[in-house]
Amino acid sequence: MLRVPFDELHAALRRAMQQLGLTEDRAALCARLFAETTRDGVYTHGLNRFPRFVETIRNGSIHIHAEPTKTTGIGAIERWEGHRGVGNLNAHASMQRAITLAKQHGIGAVALANTNHWMRGGTYGWQAAEQGLFALCWTNTLANLPAWGATTPTLGNNPFVIAVPRPGGHVVLDMAMSQFSYGTLAAYSKRGQPLPVDGGFDTAGNLTRDPAAIESSQRALPVGYWKGSGLSLVLDMLAAMISGGLATHQIPRDPLRESGLSQVFLAIDPTTIADPQELSQIADAILDSLHQATPADPGKPIRYPGQQTLQLREENLRLGVPVDPEIWHQLNPFQLS
């Protein structure tokens, strides 16, 4: 891996976005979201995802000039239409709208239909937490996860995000309903490394840590076995029903043509019901209790969701952001062919 300064990565991505046809402001924001994802160590959904992003623009799955529009709403809840626009820009706008509603009503909800892959879901949790709000958001996906007891994928791995603001470091849970995302499987496979725990089944139906075998079988393991399978199902139902958009079974199964996703963004302003200092004390006490747990491996201290992100962010800003040399050389300079 190469290390490049964050500003250099952002600038290269911004130039590439503009060459793809995004307007200057939208190119800058889209590039920043990609660059921040890479900076925070989620390499599979940052720069490493850029080649697929380019392909989905070229094949018409992403409409680069489309922006979300409100279709209906009452009080603190609204429906928006994504027009198959750029996924991370649509998601960023939707979370910001949910935040605005929450500041008016204490809670805000935006259901977004007909959008595209939002890249790193945790982005929108951090977005809310950095403005002092709790957040919950999720998306459905193409069918890439077998229901528990099935051998063929009928569910999505439907990432789910919960964010808790905290002065000492936000807590942000960002998880897919599969034990490992397909991007993570691909990363392990490329490095020729086994997964740290079982991640799915091989073609013979055996649990395995071999990422290539799981990619081949398309039998990723739901988190919590039947529990993750059930949670994936209800998240899909909620997203499609509240937004009025597509469900997983209606989304194209080709990863390069995955489009028309349904997403939900919830924001809660805790200051409407509680004192910020009291909230901070509660959060700190919970995390202090967590850190007092005896680790199974003394060399691996217990950490909360988002803690490693903060550590990687500091390291990568100081030393440079790790990038795949092959993708970096494709990006800088980026030329449309």
From TrEMBL:
<protein>
    <submittedName>
        <fullName>3-dehydro-L-gulonate 2-dehydrogenase</fullName>
        <ecNumber>1.1.1.130</ecNumber>
    </submittedName>
</protein>
<dbReference type="InterPro" id="IPR043144">
    <property type="entry name" value="Mal/L-sulf/L-lact_DH-like_ah"/>
</dbReference>
<dbReference type="GO" id="GO:0047559">
    <property type="term" value="F:3-dehydro-L-gulonate 2-dehydrogenase activity"/>
</dbReference>
<dbReference type="Pfam" id="PF02615">
    <property type="entry name" value="Ldh_2"/>
</dbReference>
<keyword id="KW-0560">Oxidoreductase</keyword>
<dbReference type="InterPro" id="IPR043143">
    <property type="entry name" value="Mal/L-sulf/L-lact_DH-like_NADP"/>
</dbReference>
<dbReference type="InterPro" id="IPR036111">
    <property type="entry name" value="Mal/L-sulfo/L-lacto_DH-like_sf"/>
</dbReference>
<dbReference type="InterPro" id="IPR003767">
    <property type="entry name" value="Malate/L-lactate_DH-like"/>
</dbReference>
